[in-house]
Amino acid sequence: MSDTVIKNHTENLHEEHVHRDDTGAKMGMWLFLFTELLLFGGLFLLYMAYRLQYYHEFHIAARELNVGIGTFNTIILLTSSMTMALSIAAMQRSRKGLSLFLLASTKILALGFLVNKYFEWSAKFEHGFFPGSDVLIDKPRGEYLFYGMYYAMTGLHALHVIAGMTILVFMFVFITRNSITPTNYVKLENSGLYWHLVDLIWIFLFPLFYLMR
Amino acid sequence: MANEHSEKNHSVGYGTYVLIWLVLVGLTVTTVSISGINLGNIALAVALLIAAVKSAFVINIFMHIKFEEKIFKVFIAIALMTLLSVFVLTAFDVFFR
After folding, report:
1. Which of A4, A88, A112, B68 has the fewest C-beta atoms under 10 angstroms from its C-beta?
2. Cβ–Cβ of B14/A86 closer than 8 Å?
3. Would you say residue B43 lies in a domain?
């Protein structure tokens, strides 16, 4: 009897002494986000150089983009960022069900973003606007480059949306399995940071591609 | 331990997030409306300024940086300044070529 008590006691002690450094974990996540900043930063840099070089052609090419879909998708992503932040806030207040609901909402909004993207790109493809198409090759070099940048940058961003959704699916499972709890939720916070970065990149992609009229 | 405690005290309320979301949507509507007006050369500057303000809200509130330790702010500031200087230097290079 007393042996079990001692054993339980030492197990508890062991639990309490598990080393955990939430600030360090977040710092690591931010360092990763800086590498993402470099990845997209390089593309933005190239965009700027081409835009300076082919100023008028960029403006003409940008008129073809659908501002309505772009605006709608911006609002979808902003909303998903809010539900992500709210999901963490709910977890902090021990409201697991609400946290899961908000996390699921974030994923549904992300899916909505991708569905819009699919329709947007399909419409462009139908009109022959895709990298290497005859329609684009016949256009002036600046317009061709604009579409090259457009597909490369929004495409890479869409890949990040897919990656973010995958991470959020894992977080959902972690919460249901109590691997993320109201006292230990740094995984959820770090996934949130990634998701907000995806939103941040779109905040710049949107005016640079869609709002150049 | 002390840090963990102070972080808990800084957990942001639901209302704040909703308010920030409203501001972000408002800024999006503003930037779309402004793009319809012909502002000429400053159009890009205005669009980027609005994007920067939106980013500041996302980083500070959604990403919680306002309530994080100072070292995070220092790191982010250095990263952004580095990126900005690369952009400015490249812009000069392309522009005066």
Report:
1. A4
2. yes
3. yes
Cα separation values, B80 from A38, B3, B42, Å: 10, 26, 22
Read off the pTM: 0.89
**B60 in a structural domain:** yes
pLDDT interval class at A18 (50, 70, 90): confident
Taking the Cβ of residue A200 and every Cβ of chain B, the question of whether any pair is shorter than 8 Å is answered with yes
- A49 contacts in chain B (CB < 8 Å): 90, 94
Q: Report the pLDDT value the prediction gives residue B42, as an integer from 0 to 100.
A: 86
CA distance B57 to chain A (A): 10
Q: Does residue A82 belong to the interface with chain B, where contact is any CB pair within 8 Å?
A: yes
Number of domains in chain B: 1
Does the CB of A39 have a partner CB in chain B at under 8 Å?
A: no
**By CB neighbour count within 10 A (0-12 exposed, 13-18 middle, 19+ buried), where does A99 fall?**
buried
Q: What is the ipTM of this complex?
A: 0.89
Q: Is position B18 within any domain?
A: yes
Domain of B16, in residue numbers: 2-68
- Per residue, the 3-state secondary structure of A98-126, as one string, reads HHHHHHHHHHHHHHHHHHHHHHHHHHHHH
Right CATH for A25-209 from 3.90.226.10, 3.40.50.1980, 1.20.120.80, 1.10.760.10: 1.20.120.80
Is B40 contained in some domain?
Answer: yes
* B13, closest residue in chain A (CA to CA): A89
